């Protein structure tokens, strides 16, 4: 095995001709969509039509560590798409009687005979998710396979568009299409260039990969972190395989969603080390994880926490099967409120607290979150820092109960007085939040044991009624002349729950029309509005003060 790193400027067709390549299991599947494939076709068409007949495609990083096939660390999208272009040329040759030329492209760039498999196999092998589907295009007479994944549909789309492009080139060349294809083949082999980097080991490849990213390659945080951990782990026997397997399990637990996985990685790290912005996360992890052992430890934590994090995002997750209905409603409410900044703390609590104590914290998290939303500042840096610091304390074993957790969060959880004061004047712009607040207050008025756990009512059945309409006319609402209505229409005191049909009937009508409909509602808080003689700013302010007086009992600071 070579021990040096080779750099060169090669034609991408040349690489496909002289190397035997594979995309490793842990690499992302094919991801080029219509725009990228169209750009590929447009770029090579422009370059082919120029006097230089040269086009630079980027970088291909390969590792020669594993067997005869080189492992593609970076560049699989370019290589796979170019392969489809050569497939389209081969097939067009064959369909038009140029069998010798078709066979030459097939044997030089696309397929080779494998003694082990007893059949022809592609010179480029994609990852386990895509390879079987990819082979039907590349290997002659391969079994047709239906698309079952997004990457399959992208490959199918790319294949169709490139075949159309190749046919278009042939038709434009007319009777000279064979000569044109000969020139295209030369261009793909020598003029369509990449920086070719071949390294002796995957850890070296990951170093190159990371360096290229520092120079501007378009990689996600999870790509960078994955390759960094793989590089560190590969320095220990079986380390790469261990980290790779754990990474794949964690990624799969979050439905292979890149954005969601990045959010999870940040929340997990923040629950261990304190608040870190996404922009600095990679550098933070690099500074703390420097050995193979540390890389494997972090991979283990990533794997063990992913299922828990996924459960925080869905009340239907099997994780909650033994937690009871209240907890499921709790999770549903937390997601309705979009309280993402609490997740680092909840992740730590679920992994370290007893179930009994964790249930208390989950319920209190709703109450604390609502208080933060009403008073303001829930999305601020100090709030995120406090929740992350509390998570670190949980992981260290310094905090083991809900009471101890509240003591860590004392400065960011509004007191009853602060909460009620802010509630008495809050404006709520999101209908889903306003419906939730009113439903919870209605449940509190009815004496329900856990009023804060109410599923958001179906908007198709229960509407949010603005008593003073958003489009009120001065003729119908003389108490709100000019722009005065804008100051009061979004106040919570002006909102009410109403079944859809009655709500549709009253629309923007005056209060005299709305009054009997509101009075006949099954909701106590809505019915009270119907008992008013008129609806002015004074009534809105008074009603909201009354709602505020019940807010602390609805969302208690401690249970």
Structure overview:
This protein is of the alpha/beta class and 559 residues long. Helix content is 58%, strand content 9%. It has 25 helices and 10 strands. It has helices at residues 12-18, 34-48, 76-95, 99-110, 131-138, 150-173, 177-191, 202-214, 221-233, 239-253, 258-273, 278-288, 292-312, 325-337, 343-352, 355-375, 381-395, 402-408, 416-423, 431-445, 484-488, 500-506, 511-519, 524-530, 537-554, and strands spanning 6-11, 21-22, 55-63, 70-74, 111-114, 119-122, 124-125, 192-199, 462-466, 495-499. The strands form 3 sheets. A 6-stranded mixed sheet has the order 1-8-3-4-2-7, sandwiched between helices. Strands 5-6 form a two-stranded antiparallel sheet. Strand 5 and strand 6 (119-122) form a beta hairpin. The radius of gyration is 31 Å and the shape is elongated. The N and C termini lie far apart (66 Å). The mean pLDDT is 89.
Features:
two-stranded antiparallel sheet, 58% helix, alpha/beta, 10 strands, six-stranded mixed β-sheet, 559 residues
- The number of helical runs is 25
Strand order of the largest sheet: 1-8-3-4-2-7
Class computed from helices, strands and strand pairing: alpha/beta
Distance separating the two termini: 66 Å
Radius of gyration: 31 Å
Strand content: 5-15%
Shape: elongated
Number of strands: 10
- State the share of residues found in helices, binned by percent: 55-70%
Mean pLDDT: 89
Low-confidence stretches: none
* Main beta-sheet strand count, sense and barrel state: 6 strands, mixed
């Amino acid at each position: 095995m070579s021990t040096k790193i080779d750099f060169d400027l090669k034609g991408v067709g040349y690489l496909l001709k002289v190397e035997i390549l594979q995309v490793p299991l842990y690499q992302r599947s094919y991801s080029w969509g219509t725009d990228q494939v169209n750009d590929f076709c447009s770029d090579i068409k422009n370059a082919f039509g120029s006097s230089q007949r040269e086009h630079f495609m980027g970088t291909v990083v390969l590792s020669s560590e594993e067997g005869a096939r080189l492992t593609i660390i970076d560049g699989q999208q370019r290589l796979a798409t170019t392969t489809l272009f050569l497939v389209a040329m081969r097939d067009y040759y064959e369909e038009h009687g140029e069998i010798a030329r078709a066979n030459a492209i097939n044997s030089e760039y696309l397929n080779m005979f494998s003694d082990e498999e007893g059949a022809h196999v592609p010179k480029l092998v994609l990852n386990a998710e895509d390879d079987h589907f990819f082979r039907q295009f590349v290997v002659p007479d391969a079994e047709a396979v239906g698309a079952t994944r997004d990457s399959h549909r992208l490959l199918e789309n790319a294949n169709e568009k490139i075949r159309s492009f190749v046919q278009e080139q042939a038709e434009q060349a007319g009777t000279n299409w064979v000569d044109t294809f000969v020139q295209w083949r030369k261009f793909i082999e020598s003029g369509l260039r990449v920086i070719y980097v071949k390294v002796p080991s995957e850890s070296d490849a990951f170093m190159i990969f990371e360096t290229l990213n520092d120079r501007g390659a378009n990689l996600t945080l999870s790509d960078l972190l994955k390759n960094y951990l793989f590089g560190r782990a590969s320095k220990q026997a079986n380390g790469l395989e261990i980290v790779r397997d754990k990474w794949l399990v964690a990624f799969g637990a979050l439905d292979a969603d890149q954005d969601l996985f990045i959010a999870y990685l940040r929340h997990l790290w923040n629950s261990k080390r304190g608040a870190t912005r996404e922009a600095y996360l990679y550098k933070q992890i690099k500074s703390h994880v420097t050995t193979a052992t540390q890389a494997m430890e972090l991979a283990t934590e990533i794997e063990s926490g992913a299922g828990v994090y996924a459960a925080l995002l869905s009340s239907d997750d099997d994780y909650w099967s033994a937690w009871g209905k209240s907890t499921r409603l709790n999770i549903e409410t937390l997601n309705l409120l979009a309280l993402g900044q609490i997740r680092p703390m909840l992740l730590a609590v679920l992994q370290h607290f007893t179930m009994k104590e964790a249930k208390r914290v989950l319920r209190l998290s709703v109450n604390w979150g609502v208080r933060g939303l009403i008073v303001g500042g829930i999305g601020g840096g100090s709030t995120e820092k406090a929740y992350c610091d509390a998570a670190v304390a949980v992981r260290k074993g310094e905090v083991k109960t809900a009471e101890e957790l509240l003591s860590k969060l004392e400065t960011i959880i509004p007191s009853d007085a602060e909460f009620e004061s802010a509630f008495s004047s809050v404006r709520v712009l999101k209908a889903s939040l306003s419906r939730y607040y009113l439903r919870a207050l209605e449940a509190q008025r009815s004496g329900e044991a856990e009023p804060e756990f109410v599923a958001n009512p179906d908007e198709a059945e229960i509407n949010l009624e603005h008593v003073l309409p958003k489009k009120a006319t001065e003729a119908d609402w003389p108490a709100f002349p000019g722009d005065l209505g804008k100051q009061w229409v979004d106040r919570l005191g002006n909102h009410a729950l109403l079944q859809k049909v009655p709500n549709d009937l009253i629309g923007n009508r005056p209060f005299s029309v709305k009054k009997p409909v509101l009075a006949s509602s099954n909701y106590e808080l809505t019915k009270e509005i119907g008992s008013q003689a008129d609806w002015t700013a004074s009534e809105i302010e008074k009603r909201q003060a009354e709602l505020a007086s019940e807010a602390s009992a609805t969302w208690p600071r401690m249970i």
